[in-house]
Every structure is written in C-alpha cells, then in structure tokens.
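$ ./design --mode recover --in tokens.txt
reading tokens...
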C-alpha cells in the first residue's frame, strides 16, 4: 500500500500547494509506471485513504492530471486514466522530433564543460541498468534522470523548454515507456543517447540535431513495430 505523504507536524496550516504538487507527482508517476492501468477509474475516497490526505488537495492534483492529458473526466462516469491512442502517440512523437532536435542543436552551442560532464555522468548512471540482462525498458524514471529533459534545460531557450517539458512531457514519458517494452529498444536507445551526447560535447550542433531527430524517429518506428504496423 502506498505510504501517506509526509507533512511537517509543525506546519500550521499545511501548505496545500506543496501537498497538491506532491500528490500530482505521485499520481503521475504511478500512471506512467502502469500502477494505474489505462482506463482505471480514479476514486477520490480510495485515493484519499491510500495517500492519507484530504479531498481538497487531491481534487486539485487530479485537475492537474487532466491538464497534462493523463486522465479524462466524463459526466456521470468520473475520472479515468487515459487509454493510449496510437494516432495521438504518433502525432506527439512527430512534434517532439522537431522540438528535441532543436534542443540538441542549441545544447551543442551553449553547453558548458560542467554540463557536458553532468550529461556523461547521467549516461554512466543509466549504463548499469541497461547492462542488466533483465532490463526490458530504459527507465529514466524522473525528470532529474531524463537525458531529454536535461538537454532541453541546457539549450537555454525558455520557450523551447516549456514546449518540450511542459504540458505534454509526462504523457510523452508514458508513451515512451510503452514502446521501450520492445525487445532490444532500451539498448539501442542508450547507444543513440551516447552519440547525441558526444555531438553536444564536440559542439557539433548540426550533428547533434540530426542524431536527436533520428533517435526520436527510431522511437516512433519502434512504436509502430510494437503495434505490427511498421
């Protein structure tokens, strides 16, 4: 059973905004991880008991899930986890190919030595997981461990970052996790990441953009293959 969200006993009143954010993070990660299966109805009373919170912050967290397109609300049927659509996924991957290619291009122009070192450290952290023969997907479980998120951040373009890592970011992670269940995709994705980081480290903006676009296109193809439509 999920542990209750901890709040400081001395907090009076409790910062409901912080509590809402914590709930949103827990619920969105549970959806991405598949703990709440597609189509699952989210019961407010059950979730309130599960997380040990009041209904107010929970309702606000669910509203944020709606904004991020992770759940849908239907009159008289309540709130349910989104059922992934192949067409929607393909549209999202097509848009991200352009956005993330541009982010890699800008990152190659602006990344500092320290940021390149952080990118390489992130890859090293991923390698142990990828080398595990039991690995079936490339986790990158949080934004802090997501290479794509980091590259968008060091591109130094706030609008580009907002478009890449804002409203549709968590939904993209959900779709990305689905296609990474394809055998061998996790290992190929890691190799592609290494080449992208090398291009950024070399300051080769055109190559970094090309490799990132190929990487996203490869992910899109993998998604189609998983559905038997490649």
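writing sequence...
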């Amino acid at each position: 059973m999920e542990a209750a969200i901890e709040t400081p006993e001395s907090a009076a009143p409790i910062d409901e905004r912080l509590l809402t954010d914590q709930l949103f993070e827990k619920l969105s990660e549970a959806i991405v991880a598949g703990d709440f299966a597609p189509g699952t109805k989210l019961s407010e009373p059950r979730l309130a008991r599960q997380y040990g919170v009041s209904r107010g912050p929970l309702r606000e967290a669910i509203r944020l899930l709606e904004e991020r397109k992770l759940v849908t609300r239907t009159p008289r049927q309540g709130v349910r986890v989104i059922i992934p659509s192949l067409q929607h996924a393909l549209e999202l991957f097509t848009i991200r190919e352009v956005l993330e290619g541009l982010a890699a291009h800008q990152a190659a122009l602006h990344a500092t030595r320290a940021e390149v070192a952080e990118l390489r450290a992130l890859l090293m952290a991923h390698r142990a997981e990828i080398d595990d023969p039991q690995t079936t997907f490339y986790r990158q479980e949080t934004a802090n461990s997501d290479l794509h998120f980091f590259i968008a951040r060091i591109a130094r373009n706030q609008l580009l970052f907002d478009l890449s890592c804002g409203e549709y970011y968590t939904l993209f992670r959900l779709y990305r996790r689905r296609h990474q269940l394809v055998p061998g995709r996790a290992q190929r994705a890691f190799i592609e990441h290494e080449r992208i980081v090398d291009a950024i480290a070399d300051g080769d903006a055109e190559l970094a953009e090309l490799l990132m676009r190929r990487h996203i296109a490869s992910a899109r193809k993998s998604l189609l293959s998983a559905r038997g439509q490649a």
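exit 0
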